[in-house]
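Exercise 7.
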Amino acid sequence: MPSLNSSQREALLAELSGLKRFCFSLTGSQADADDLLQATVEKVLEKGMPEDAHPAKWAYRVCKNAWIDELRSREVRQRYPEQAEEPESSPSAEQVAGRERQVSAVGAALEQLADEQRLALTLVAVEGKTYAEAAEILEVPVGTIMSRIARARKQLATTISLAEDD
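Solution. The predicted structure, written as tokens, is:
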């Protein structure tokens, strides 16, 4: 996509106050709204928009998607908190070895996936892309992405459970 032309840039600037209110309505927090507005404007300026796109509608869509991405990443951080604090005790050599075996098993299982399944799963599960974004990147319908990911997850579960049984 090309960068913003002057009329798109002017339309974006004219829409900033409304976009800021929209950010606040999404987040419920002034600090989060400011961060979301900044992220939205950065994305629009960095990635541009199609020539035929309505600047305000495009900016609101980018904003909504950025907020969804933020909510997803917050959910992941809450579900899997990093060990930022000092651990009470160091993991045992057995625990470390067990984790290394798990990582190795997952890596091996990923390598066994068909290329199109591995790409779809990586875009969504690792890179955090939406199904629609992954579909656009891989130039396939969203339903195809959903199907590939479902098959990939099933295959991973089977492969990893077989590895654990050994």
